[in-house]
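User: Please predict the structure of the protein below. I'd like the answer in C-alpha cell form so I can feed it into my own downstream comparison script.

Assistant: Understood. Taking the following sequence of 329 residues as input:
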Amino acid sequence: MAQAGATRTGQSLNDEQLDEICRDALTAEAAAITAFAAQGTDLAAAARMIVDASGPLIVAGIGKSGHIASKISSTFRSIGKASIFLHPAEASHGDLGLVQPDSVVLVLSNSGETTELSDLLHYCQVHKIKVIALTATADNTLARAADLTIAYGRVREVCPNGLAPTTSTTLSLAIGDALAVGVTHLLGTAAEDFRRYHPGGKLGALLMSVDDLMHTGAELPLVAPDAPMSETVVEMSVKALGVAIVVDSRKVIGIITDGDMRRHAKTLWNARAGDIATPDPISVRPGTRAKDALDLMTDRKITACLVQQENGALAGLLHLHDCLRAGLS
C-alpha cells in the first residue's frame, strides 16, 4: 500500500502508482465513514430537533466546512425542510436576522475553534436558539456552546501532508446526508413531494405523473358508440392523437386506433364506432408515474393509453409523444 506523505511535489509516478494512491484515499475516507457509523451517535436526537423546529434550519460553516454546509442546506430544502446557508462572517454584518427564534442552527467546524463563529454562537446563546455542533471532538469551544454535539472524532486527512480538509469534509457531508435521510422519514416526504421541489431537469421528468401530461376535457377525441365512422375519422383528425375513445356517458366502451380501421377497411364507412372499437383498452390509474406508463406503452407497442379512475370513469389520455417531449425515454 502506498504510504501517505511519501509523495513529494514533482515526484515521478507511473499510472499504477498514482492509481493506487487515489484508491487508497477513497478507501481511507470510506473507512472513516464506516467507523463513525459503527459508533453510538446523536443522529436521531439531531434529526428530531431539526424536525421539531418550526423555523428554517440554519446551516453555517466557513472555508471548506462552509462549502459542505451549503450543500447540506440545499439537501434539506430538497426534502421539504426549509433551510438557509449562513456564512458566519456575513452573520456578523447583518445576516443574523436570518436566524429565527424557532430555528435550529447546525454549525460545522472540524476544530471547533473557528473565530468567525463567535458572534453567531453568542447570538444563539442570548436568544436561546438551539445549536447542533458537527465537529471533531466534544471538548472544543463550539461543542461546549452547542445544545447537541455530533463528534466524529479526530480523523487523518488523506491529503499527503495531512492538512487539506479531505476526510473530515467528506465525513461531515456524509453525516449531513444521514441527517437528511432521517428527517425525510420523520417528515414522510414522498416522491411526489420531492418532485415539487425539483420540477426541472431529468429528475423532475422522471418523477412526473400521468396527471401532469395527459390530455383532458375538450382535448379528448370522444365519440359515441353509434357515431358513424365518417364522423369518428374527423374527430380523430381534429384532435390529432391517433385514436378515438368510444364512450357512453363517460363510461369507456373501447378505443379506436389506426390499426383498428385498417383491419376493418372493407366495411369501415358503413360501420359505427362501437363496431370498430377494441374493448377493454390498456389503461393506467391517475397518479401513475409517467415513466411507468411510458414503459407500459413501449412494452405493449401502443402509442396512447387511457387514464381511468378505479371505477372506470375516464380521466384522460396519455400519448407516447407527450412523454418524449417531457424528456422521458
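That's the full C-alpha cell string. The first helix runs from residue 15 to 38.
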